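sorry for the late reply, my laptop died twice this morning and i had to redo everyting from scratch. anyway the thing you sent over, i finally got around to it. pasting the sequence first so we're on the same page, its 112 residues, then the predicted structure underneath. double check i copied it right bc i was rushing
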Amino acid sequence: MIKEFIIYFLAAFFEIFGCYSFWMVFKLEKSSFWLFAGMISLICFAFLLTKVNLEFAGRAYAIYGGIYIVSSLFWLFFVEKQSFTKYDIVGTLIIFVGICTILLGNQKLLNS
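ok and here's the structure:
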């Protein structure tokens, strides 16, 4: 299960970085070089999601959606230097319970 979380968090990093690269070019007027970096990052993101140990893409994407939200809040804090609100924290805890429920339940099915 640890391997799955590592893959999901790496995928989230590459997706957020890829999208943020476009944000930097079109909103912050940074160099067009960031578009190339963003495209490479988004390819890495898509590739990584194929490496999770689940049978169906929809289930992998559901788990990933929760990881993406958690990762986005880390990005908010570490890159954009914004503080968490109590709603960010409570929402993240709720999401994390859902992620673990889907992942653990389906890992047991795969191992049966």
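The helical segments are 2-26, 33-49, 57-78, 86-111.
thats about all i looked at so far, will dig more tmrw
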